[in-house]
Design goal:
The chain has helices at 3-23, 36-43, 54-65, 87-98, 110-126, 141-159, 164-167, 185-193, 214-221, 245-255, 310-317, 346-381, 406-423, 450-471, and strands at residues 134-138, 176-180, 202-204, 228-233, 258-262, 287-291, 303-307, 386-388, 396-401, 429-433, 436-442. The chain is an alpha/beta fold. The strands form two sheets. Strands 1-7-6-5-4-2-3 form a seven-stranded mixed sheet, sandwiched between helices. Strand 4, helix 10 (245-255) and strand 5 form a beta-alpha-beta unit. Bound molecules: pyridoxal-5'-phosphate.
Length: 472
């Protein structure tokens, strides 16, 4: 077999392995049977001097690596906030790789660029955001937040008479950055990259669900006329709650502040009529970051940076180079909305997932995931010794396993989490909230049914009884 044929056969083999893996996913171990150490050992060979055979390489990857693959596409996977990598999105993504498209610009990748433009419009319609907003297809919400905040920085400083793209931050008017006390850690990374600093922020007090208190927000905005960027969120990582945009947005507008929303998963409540009230008023913001690889179920990686002021978005991101003329016909150049030039064609998987589920399918999935979370939480809370940490408002919930005191409760909670993971009927992780350990579940998968929620709740209760029996 020549190298070309071997490579093509390797693609076939990889597809066959991938399909076989997904066929058995419901019965795959909920926790990988091998961890990092074993996997490092399995692959830690000397740098190869000579090339190898493509088929053998893929066979080796599958044979050695499968034990350390986490079953995050299993229907009862409730760890972190991870989407399902839906087969339709994976298939489209295979083509993105196989076609080898560099989705940097319209000339290099006409289909990839055009499909992004269409998927961008669909996204805005799905999320009921301004149809004139611009959309950058990024790696995830971390980078999408960064992109949106770069646009915010550009525009707020431009209004203050400063060109940050040309002149940088030294000597620029000071920008005040407000952020809720329960914001996601990754937003601080964006602030770090942008020269705002992780620490140089005004932290706004939050309520029991992690929502900014409007009075505290108003105070933090200040009245001194300094440029302000306010960062709110849709979907707190532990509680699923969103900031009260209906109250915050008019305050920000009145003050001339830029309001950004980190809506990595929570923004998708906007796509589900039954959950929409969770994010009322979110459309009044100036920018929104969200993920494709969480609730839209695209494969990793995929996120979207959405900016009301498309000009500010392009000013912050567009790359100019002699060999990269801007499109003549007003076409949308993908690289004008994200930091990278050469980039993955994320439009294929996004387009495929929206086609696959449709407006109705996305609404049904979001509503079902939220219902499963609510029902699981209710069943657990009815069990002696298990208490719900706060009310369930979206797809996330936390429970605590009660001990004789706070430290004992922490220990029992971690033990219950370990037992649930060892029993392997469902995967649920631990988190910390308000200084205490909790078991935190995230229901964020197209594959999860009501029956899966029931099975998982039963498994958690059984695990808890085993933990208690050991203590007795
Ligand atoms: C997941 C998440 C992020 C980070 O998104 P990535 O896709 O991991 O980059 C940011 N904010 C919130 C609220 C999240 O849930």
């Amino acid at each position: 077999m020549d190298d070309i044929e071997a490579g093509l056969t390797a693609m076939e083999k990889a597809a066959a392995h991938a399909i076989a893996y997904r066929r058995q996913i419901a019965s795959a171990p909920a926790t990988p049977t091998a961890g990092y150490g074993a996997m490092f050992e399995a692959f830690n060979a000397p740098l190869p001097d000579e090339g190898g055979d493509a088929v053998a390489i893929i066979e080796e990857l599958v044979a050695s690596g499968t034990a350390g693959i986490r079953a995050s596409t299993a229907p009862r996977f409730f760890g972190w906030v991870i989407g399902n990598s839906h087969p339709a999105g994976v298939a489209a993504d295979w083509l993105a790789s196989a076609w080898g498209q560099n989705a940097g610009n319209v000339l290099a990748a006409p289909t990839a660029s055009a499909i992004e433009a269409v998927a961008a419009r669909w996204l805005l319609e799905l999320l009921h955001l301004p149809t004139t907003a611009s959309v950058g297809f990024a790696t995830g919400a971390t980078v999408a937040n960064f992109v949106c905040l770069a646009a915010a920085r550009s525009e707020m400083l431009r209004r203050a008479g400063w060109d940050v793209e040309a002149d940088g931050l030294f000597g620029a008017p000071e920008v005040r950055v407000l952020i809720g006390a329960d914001a996601h850690a990754t937003v601080f990374s964006g602030l770090k990259y942008l020269g705002f600093g992780e620490r140089r922020v005004v932290t706004v007090e939050t309520d029991a669900l992690g929502r900014m208190l409007p009075a505290a927000f108003e105070r933090a905005l200040g009245t001194d006329g300094a440029p302000v960027i306010a960062i709110a969120q849709a979907g707190q990582i532990n509680t699923g709650a969103s900031d009260p945009f209906v109250e915050l947005a008019p305050m920000a507008r009145e003050r001339g502040a830029w309001l950004h929303i980190d809506g990595a998963f929570g923004l998708w409540a906007r796509a589900a009529p039954a959950m929409e009230e969770q994010v009322l008023g979110v459309e009044q913001a100036d920018s929104w970051a969200t993920d494709g690889h969480k609730w839209l179920q695209t494969p990793y990686d995929c996120g979207f940076a959405i900016v009301r002021d498309a000009e500010a978005h392009r000013r912050a991101m567009a790359i100019s180079a002699s060999y990269l003329p801007p499109p003549e016909g007003g076409e949308r150049d993908p690289s004008a909305y994200v930091p990278e030039l050469s980039r993955r064609a994320r439009g294929f998987a996004t387009w495929a997932m929206i086609r696959q589920l449709g407006r109705a399918g996305i609404a049904e999935m979001v509503e079902r995931n939220c219902r499963v979370a609510r029902n699981m939480a209710e069943r657990l809370a009815a069990e002696p010794g298990i208490s719900l940490v706060c009310q369930v408002v979206l797809n996330q919930f936390m429970v605590r396993f009660e001990g004789s005191d706070a430290a004992d409760g922490d220990a029992l909670t971690l033990e219950a989490v370990r037992q649930v993971q060892a029993d392997a009927i469902a995967f649920i992780g631990a988190s910390q909230w308000r200084g205490q350990w909790v078991m935190r579940a995230s229901v964020c998968s197209w594959a999860t049914t009501d029956a899966d929620g029931d099975l998982a709740a039963t498994a958690v209760i059984a695990a808890w009884r085993r933990v208690q029996a050991r203590k007795a």
